[in-house]
Structures are given as structure tokens and as C-alpha cells.
From TrEMBL:
Occurrences of domain NlpC/P60 (ranges): 278-394
Keywords: Coiled coil, Hydrolase, Protease, Signal, Thiol protease
Species: Streptomyces beihaiensis
Segments of skewed composition (Pro residues): 48-67
Chain coiled-coil ranges: 94-128, 185-262
Residues of the signal peptide: 1-46
Name of the featured protein: NlpC/P60 family protein
Region (Disordered): 1-23, 41-85
UniProt record similarity statement: Belongs to the peptidase C40 family.
SUPFAM superfamilies the UniProt entry points to: Cysteine proteinases (SSF54001)
Gene3D superfamilies: endopeptidase domain like (from Nostoc punctiforme) (3.90.1720.10)
PANTHER family: NLP_P60 DOMAIN-CONTAINING PROTEIN-RELATED, PEPTIDOGLYCAN DL-ENDOPEPTIDASE CWLO
Residue spans of biased composition, Basic residues class: 1-15
Amino acid sequence: MNSRNRQNKRNKRNRLGGGRRGTSMAVIAAAIGAVTVLTAGGTAQAAPEPPPTPTPAPDPTPNPNPTRTPGEAAGKASGKSAASPDLEAVRKKLDTLYHQAAVATDEYNAAQEEADQQSTAIVDLAKKIVAGRQKLDRLKSGAGATAREQYRTGGIPPEAQFLLSGDPGQFLDTAGRVYQGQQAAKNLMTQLTNTQKTLADYADRASAKWKSLDEESRKKAAAKKRIEARIKAAKAIEDHLKKQQRERLRELEAQAEQKAQTAWLSSGVLKEIKAKASSAGEKAVRFATEQLGKPYVWGAEGPDSYDCSGLTSQAWAAAGHPIPRTSQEQWKQLKHVDIKDMRPGDLIIYHDDASHVGMYIGDGAIIHAPHPGRNVTIAGAGSMAMLGVVRPDA
């Protein structure tokens, strides 16, 4: 009887202890669930409360490595890849968040560039308005002088004085002055009218520029809010990872990039890429190379940090060829070239929405600023989904 009681107690302890296993990824799963709403659509909303997690059945085989998830242990035991399915889900979630942040960063940069242009236009219009008002004051002063002269002569117009003159010489002299006076008065009134219209046009255009500037400011604020939300969500996920898990996550990222790069190289495309850099392209590559190791910061364009298009636009500005600020505008405005004709200094645009850009440096590699938390680095040109290639100095 005593033996049976002891057995019952052992079974009870096993049941209570089983629920404690397999919790190494519980916090990460909760973090992913908390930010799923950010990746599902545009506006963030409160995530629904998750249903209670059922207690897993006790595992009769203890996990020999407490830092390894059960999925990793199973993969190790079966001789398959030790990549944890949970960490792979984390990697994909982070990719999505950082991609959304990159899209919003392009929107922010585009709004900033447009706002800068509007501000410059407003200053130019202000200068023109000041000059126009000065001209208008001079014209009004001239019109006042003409009126005073007419008053001084008793209000008799030059035409009447001309007709009343009996001196032939004075007649001819007066005729010339009358004609000149008529033309001068006509020209004065025309200039007054045109100047007033021009000033009104400048004022209308300045008002439109101010409205546009205000709209770009609202776009920037909205984009900034989206960027910060995505980056905060990604950081929350990474902060909940243990050191070993973060290291494993980096390995998974590198493996995914290498897999894509290998597939790209396997196509044989590198054998066709033989073009040499132009002199401007060499300068752009040299500038980009000097930025290696500097941190990615969204909206930054140097000298201490960069985002992806900030790096490429500054590199080509240093080479003497200013280009659009954003990767999307670089894709729209610069000349497209075939991949087989690519040469160092050309820009590779990535993803269907042209949300990322890197600079080709030869030998199948690029220099780029990846995303928040990473530094300017060298990567495989085919490590991401390639949209196409553009040439700044075509």
C-alpha cells in the first residue's frame, strides 16, 4: 500500500513539472503576437487577447541544452538543420517590420525633399515679391510726377498746348515731345498694370507653396510615426531574445542571404558582368567604401550615419553627379540598364516597391546600409529580391 502511495505522488509531481518545459520561446511568441497588428495592414490597432495556451504534455526526455529550443533539439537529434522554427518565424517577422519601416522611410525622405524644394521656392518668390513691390513704388512715383506736372501747367494737356502754339519751330518740337509723352504715359500704365498682376500671381503661388509645405509636413509626421512604430516593435522582439538566440538569429539571416546569393550566382549572370567602372563610378564606390561600419539611421545622409538611399545619393553627389534622394525616385528617374551590363557604381534597386538600394562594387557584391541595428556593410548583390539596376552617370 505504501508503495502505491509513493508511485501516485511521483506521478503527480511529473504532471506538475511537465508544464514548465518548452518555455524558452514563450516571451518571443508573445512579442510577435503583440506586433502582428503592425504587419497586417496600415494602421496599428489593439491586438486581441490570445487564447490560453494549453499545458504541454510532459516530455519524458529532458532537454540536454536549456538554451536550445525543443525544435532545435529535435532537429539536432534527427541530423537535420538545427534551425529553430520559432526563430525562423522571428526572422521573417523582423524582415517584415524592417521592410515596412524602409517603405515609410522612403515616404519620409520624399516628403522632406519636397518640403525643401517648396521652402526654396517660397524664398525665391519672396525675393521676387520684394523686387516687384519696389518696381511698383517707382512706377507709382513716376505716375505721381506726371500728375504734378499736369497740375503745374494748369491742367492743360500737352496736346492742347501743341495746338495753341503759333511758332512753327515750337510746333514741331512740341509735336515730338507730345508723342514721346504719350508713349511714356502709355508704357508707364502698362508697366503698372503688369507689375500689379505679377505681384498678385507671386502671392497666389506663394500661398500654394505654403499649403504644399504644410501637406508635406503632415506626410513627414505620419511617416515618422509609422517608422518609429515598426522599429520599436522589431526592437521589442530582439530585446526578448537571449544572447544565444540573437546569435542564432544572425546565423539564420546570413543563411537566408547566402541562399539567395548562391541562387543568383548559379544562374551564371556573374560571368556576363564584365564592364568596368566609369571615373565617376570609381569615385562613388570609393566614397561608399569609406562609410563601411557606420550605423544605419533612418532619414540620415551622413556624415556619421546613413539610410540606404542616403548612402547612395551622397556617394554620387561626392562623385559630381547629384541624384534623387530616395530609392523609389532613383528607380523612376535614373536610366535602367540590364544586369549583364552592370558596372561598379551602378545602383541595384530591391523589392517590388523599390524600397531598398545598394551600390554594386564588382565581383557580385554591393555596399549598402541594411536596416536599423545594422551598419553599412558589404553583401551579395543577389542576397535580396532584385528589382533592377540604374545608372546615375548614363
